[in-house]
Task: structure prediction
Amino acid sequence: MDTFDESKLKEELIDDEGKVPYAYQDSLGYWTIGIGHLIDRRLKGGLSDDTIHYIFKEDLTEKIKDLDANLSWWRNLDPVRQRAMINLCFNLGINKLLGFPNFLSHLESGNYKEAKQHLLDSKWATQVQKSRVDRITEQIEYGV
Result:
């Protein structure tokens, strides 16, 4: 049995299904992403664990690059505070995170208690689960 040409199939499927980098509803209203990948749970669609972990690694690399490009000092933080910064970048995105200049200034200068307070006083603290707010602000203030 001959093997099929995977690159030709991919090209044909892109023509047929499209190549969409975001979730969209197909012609029948089912949620889909990429090259016809069904993610609509009504039809038992979704992502495999391998795909989820792959996307996470891609996102993690992107967030670290964003922080490096915009806040070079963040690498001087201890590992716990670096983790908090990456978490904030996941949650807010780099542009919104940069919209916290007082928090960032205090964090950069080592005024961790003040940095924590600026996060707690922000709208972010009312929009995110309390457990996340508590964990991140404790990481910021105490480095643990």
Residues 97 and 116 are 14 Å apart (CA to CA). The chain has eight helices and three strands. The two ends are 59 Å apart (CA to CA).
